[in-house]
Amino acid sequence: MKTYIFSSVLFIMTLFAHTDIQAQQVDSSKNNYVVLTKKIPQLQPIILTAQALKAEEGNDFGQFKVIICGRNIGDITNPEKMKNFIGEAEKAGVELIACGFSMNKFKVDKSKIPNKINTVENGILHNFQLQKQGYKSLSL
Fold first, then answer.
1. Which InterPro entries match (predicted)?
2. Disulfide: which of 47, 52, 69, 76 matches 123 by Cβ 3.0-4.6 Å?
């Protein structure tokens, strides 16, 4: 009976460990980028940069992520400020990410965050994790 339980636990741990490893793999043959920004107006030149890199690199272009954090995080809930950026980011293949730590600190109503913006618990930590996966990083 002990052997059966031990084998079952070992099998389950192996299964979950293998799944976790697959989720963290990034195509290192592609150029992946992450930009950490504190100001919504900076999204315009960031998206233009992503478009230029995508055109320049072609098939070598990978993922482009923008992490929004800091004092002005509440601006992401303003439809007037965000409407053009969300559409342009989507067309350019840019993923917009909001920092949960900043949203909590500056009391942002999470129900007002546009569906196209993903959230992470800690934007700075997420940035470092992406760098460890080989992403080129820039902070503005």
1. DsrEFH-like
2. 69
